[in-house]
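Page 42, continued from yesterday. The earlier attempt failed because a stray header line got pasted into the input along with the sequence. Redoing it now with the clean sequence only.
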Amino acid sequence: MEPIPNAAAADAWGGWLGEGLGPLKSLYMSTGNRPAGGSNPSKIWRLDEGSEEWVDDETPEHAEVINKIRNSATTTYAFFESPGEGQTWIISKSLEHSGSGGWDFESVHTVPTPVGGRGLAINGPEGELLFAGCSQNWAEAQTAEVYQKSGGGWEKTREIEHSLLWELEFDDEDNLWEFFSAFAEGQESALFVGGEQKETPPGGNISHATWFKGHMYVIGNLSKEDSNKIYRSADGGEWEHVHTLSEATIGDHVQMVPRGEEGELWYTGHNPFEAGYSLDGTEWVREESVPSFATGEDTNHLTAVAYYGPDVDDEKERGVYLFARDSDADTTRIFRDRGAGSLMIEVI
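This time it went through. Structure tokens are written below.
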């Protein structure tokens, strides 16, 4: 395989049940680099069904980070951080678009200053509810905003001063969880669940969230307090500490994988790379077949996890894919398992 340049693995997405996206049934992986542009710009990479070659999906240029990816019944969306002049912070393309390209900018409110976060949430494959959020000039403690797409347009649903909107996620009851973080001095944290303000989650600055068996799980902390721990809450009120990563100092992703009768919960962390899983959300297993290696230091994502396997009829046998930057080897490493099989290392 041709190697993917050394970049931060920001997010990965293979469909809601690992079925792949579009007519090519593709898996997507997004990357980020700071500062924006340069010789290694942020991109989305695509792996098509039956292929072993990752290809550039020809997204627009100038993003500092292309972050969270999700799909509705008709469209794939991605968070486009710090857009250039004339660009917006959400890109999309038709789910039926075959091959590379086809990405365009959504008509969300244009902000004249850099945006941050990974605010993009859809309540399942049919996507009746779609929300996206950004933070204007977040490094200087300005405004965080959330928008809902309805009828082809975008309408603002929330605005908070002196905060960073970092994550949006739905639970099984279609309640939207909105995580606003205090990234810099003078900023404030906040949490809304179904429109009701709750107590702030541990540390405020969570890195990623996912719903699993009656609880919202969060990982990481951008302020580096509790940065390698996983917490959960049923309603956003009290938060329970359920796991501390063994070696990684920063937690990146915690992702529900709909495999088996009740699903699995996987996590990734970096500095150095670490991955593991849980079947109940309380007892955790570090995946020992994945080696520990240097990823570099960053408060943002350097690893990702996705569920994918459109060529497999039995969902229990679809694969978990793990992505991590290998800073020493100057490449992005990918690990794949196939259900009952052992993890197969792929360095690409």
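Notes: The mean pLDDT is 87.
Reminder to self: strip header lines before submitting.
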